[in-house]
Each structure stands twice: as C-alpha cells, then as structure tokens.
Amino acid sequence: MNENFIKLKKANLGYGHDEKHIVLNDINIDFLPGTITAIVGPNGAGKSTLINSIVGVLPPLSGKIEFKVTNDLNQPNFNKVGFCPQVPLIDWFTSVKNNVILGPLLSGKTLKKSRKLSISAMKQMQIYDLRNRPMDHISGGQQQRVQIARELAKNPDVFILDEPTTGLDVYSSEKLFKFLKTKSIAGSIVIISSHDLTIVEEYADKIVLIGNNKVKFNGLMSEFIQKGARNKLVEITPKSGNFSQVVKQSVSTFKESDNGNLIINFSEFEKFMNVAEKNNEVIDYISMQQKSLRDIYLDMSLEK
Q1: What's the pLDDT score for residue 185?
Q2: Residue 144 · residue 153 · CB < 8 Å
Q3: Other C-beta atoms lying within 10 Å of the C-beta of residue 184
Q4: Beta bridge partners of 13
Q5: Is the fold of 5-227 the same as that of 230-302?
Q6: Tens digits of per-residue pLDDT, 33-48?
Q7: What digits encode the pLDDT tens for the residues 107-140?
Q8: Residues 59, 13: contact at Cβ < 8 Å?
Q9: With 0-12 CB in 10 A as exposed, 13-18 as middle and 19+ as buried, what is 272?
Q10: 230-302 domain in CATH 2.40.128?
C-alpha cells in the first residue's frame, strides 16, 4: 500500500526569514496518493510560493510541512519526485535527449534504465523525433515538453508541476493530463498549478483555490462545483422589448444579452420577479443555467 503523503500544518509561507514577508497564511492541506490536486488562483496569489515550499526551495516561515516519500534503496533522496517549475530549467548547450536523460540519471538510475525511460518519456510528450536537436532549435512549447519529459523519465511516485500546460497545444495538454490521471489511479500523488480551468475541471479530483494570502477553498472538485452551484444562473426572456431600468436595478448583478434577455443569480430571482410584477413587466420564458467551473472560480476569487 502506498503510504506517501505531503501535509502542510498551520504553515505560513513566503520569502525571507520572518513573518513580515508572508505570502500565504495558516495553510493546512493534505496531498495524498491516488489524487490529482489542482492549485488555482489569480496571478501573484502564491501558487508558485506554495509549490516551491512543498519541494523545499522555500522553507516555511512557521508551521510544518511533512513530506513522506519512499525512496528506492541506495538511491538519492527525492528520486521519486518529479518537479517541473514554472521557470524553465534546461541545459541549453546540449540536445533534447541529453536533457531528458538527466532526469533518471540524477535520480540514481543506471544508464541502461535511464535510456529506456527517456525514450518512453519523449514519446509520451511527442518529442522523440526532436531528440537530436539542440534546445535552442526547437519552439518554446517543445522546450516545455522537454522539461516535463525529463521529470516523467524519473518514473516518480509524486508529480509536482507548476503551470505545465504553458506553451502546450490542446492535444499535448490533453495527452499529458490523461497520462497523469493513469498515474494517480495507480497511486501517485499529482499536484498541479494551472490557469487552464477547462482541463482542471475534467481531470482534477481536488482543488485548492488561493487568494488574499489564504486558502479560500480546499476540497473535492465535486464539492467546489456544488458550492458554486448553490448560486445558479437564471436567464429571463421578456415578452417584448427590454426590461425597464427599475427592474434591472432590483438585483445587485446581471448580464444582458443582445436580444434583451437578463441573466441573474438564482438567489435574487424571487426579488426580481416581485419587482417585475409590480412594474407590470411580462415574462415570456425562464431557464436555469448551471455555472461552469470558470464562473464559480470567478465568483469565489472575488470573495474576501
């Protein structure tokens, strides 16, 4: 049974050596086997700070980060962790295949085993045909794939990827996440920060939303969707023309389509209907809309 885990307990994270430089306050998160956890939030919220703290680049200013990952006997510490930072870490003076093979070699694997793992990783990331090219002779997206392939070639039990889909095309992103899903089902810990909410919604099991120097949500993706779904959207079609300003201003927020339909939050639907009735507004059609992950994310990001 896989007993690996990463746990943050009352951790204050940031830069420097004192709590004057806190980026994230009082963080309590468990990263467990068999789970893809997506870390989301606006630019500058602290996603990379969280990831760099998990891997030990930034020690916690206070609190604890517990990290249990079983290493292979007689091999270096951290050899079972694949870490891909947001900023490229690449040897620009050698080829694609030599960059990729560094991953398994530095994690203590034999040259024979490293070659086999590197070939598999390059094929997984669709860069095998580029294996002999110098790094500065391939595109930015291809360079990103090299960096990811280097970590996949370690055959790790823990994947920590900071914005891995940056520069990747849709097909490459989809293929990467499908691979990570199979690894998580097999028992790996997968931690990803991303702004790609479409692919996060499809593949992540858990979501951590950060903003305003704190964790705003930490739980299952289904719980996140359900929490946001409590505030469903209602689209209301007038019988003719447009709704009056009095009716529109009866709700705190609304969107108006080109054909005059109003889209409001379900929580304000009853209030809207009462005002519409008092002002003799005739309604032709009402429909409910399920909020997307993007809508829920935007709503919760704006919360203090």
Answers
A1: 95
A2: no
A3: 20
A4: 24
A5: no
A6: 999 999 999 988 999 9
A7: 889 999 999 999 999 999 999 999 999 999 999 9
A8: no
A9: buried
A10: no
How is residue 132 written in tokens? 């002999």
Sheet holding 254-256, edge to edge: 254-256, 262-265, 233-238, 283-289
Structure tokens at 86: 């947001």
Instruction: Find out whether 194 and 164 touch, Cβ atoms under 8 Å.
Output: yes
The pLDDT tens digits for 2-38 are 678 999 999 999 987 766 789 999 999 999 999 999 9
- Whether 108 contacts 76, CB under 8 Å: yes
d(CA 289, CA 282): 21
Encoding tokens for residue 77?
């510490």
Contacts of 211 (CB under 8 A, 6+ apart): 41, 42, 45, 301
Check: CB of residue 301 under 8 Å from CB of residue 282.
no
Query: What are the boundaries of each domain within the chain?
Result: 5-227, 230-302
The CATH architecture assigned to 5-227 reads 3-Layer(aba) Sandwich (3.40)
Those residues whose C-beta lies under 8 Å from the C-beta of residue 297, and which sit 6 or more positions away, are 40, 197, 209
**What is the pTM (predicted TM-score) of this model?**
0.80
User: Which pLDDT score is estimated for 304?
Assistant: 64
**Residues ≥6 apart with Cβ < 8 Å to 279:** 244, 246, 247
In whole angstroms, give the CA distance from residue 275 to residue 178: 49
d(CA 10, CA 76): 29
In single-letter form, the type of residue at position 242 comes to N
More confidently predicted of 263 and 232: 263
pLDDT tens digit string along 286-298? Answer: 887 777 777 777 7
Contact at 8 Å (CB) between 178 and 156? no
- Contact call for residues 260 and 238 (beta carbons, < 8 A): yes
Under a CB-based contact definition with an 8 Å cutoff, are residues 139 and 110 in contact?
A: no
